[in-house]
Write a structure and sequence with these properties.
2 domains, alpha+beta, 157 residues
């Protein structure tokens, strides 16, 4: 992506910046939300989607990786504890999936956001896309059968 210095969004930072010699443009390889933003600055729909993702992956990890070593998830780009309402402990593979899912959902250009399976432009890496599909199928069934009203509301609205 190319931005002039004046058109850079104020709430974004970059992990790699290259200054073009001829054009004076900044090329950004990876745009990520600024690490200093308060969790409260996320809009309600995004916050709800990220919380649902965290719950789905936590449920999946607990049931499918019971013997794996777990660590509390801490991301540079998101306040996971603030979003989920509590600390989330996952195995390394599920932590990578959660990180990928949070970044992709936070930067989704679609407005209104469709379900990923109905999206015309799939932004997930194929490996993560298959993994999140498996997580959604497993955890979605578990939450519906377990009578989770918050998940039913998420499905309907």
């Amino acid at each position: 992506m190319c931005f002039s210095r004046a058109s850079l969004p104020m709430n974004f930072s970059s992990s790699k910046i290259w200054h073009g010699k001829c054009t004076g443009l900044i090329v950004m390889d990876a745009i990520a939300p600024a690490t200093t933003h308060p969790t409260g600055s996320l809009d309600a729909k995004l916050r709800r989607d990220l919380k649902t993702l965290a719950r789905f992956i936590e449920l999946y990890c607990g049931e499918n990786h019971p013997d794996a070593a777990r660590q509390a998830v801490s991301l540079r780009t998101h306040d996971v504890r603030g979003i989920a309402g509590r600390a989330i402990a996952l195995c390394p593979a599920c932590t990578q999936l959660l990180t990928h899912a949070f970044v992709k959902r936070s930067h989704c250009p679609m407005n209104p956001k469709p379900a990923c399976k109905h999206c015309p432009a799939h932004c997930y890496h194929p490996r993560y896309r298959a993994a999140i599909g498996e997580v959604m199928r497993f955890s979605g069934r578990r939450m519906v059968l377990g009578g989770r009203l918050d998940y039913l509301i998420h499905l309907l609205f």
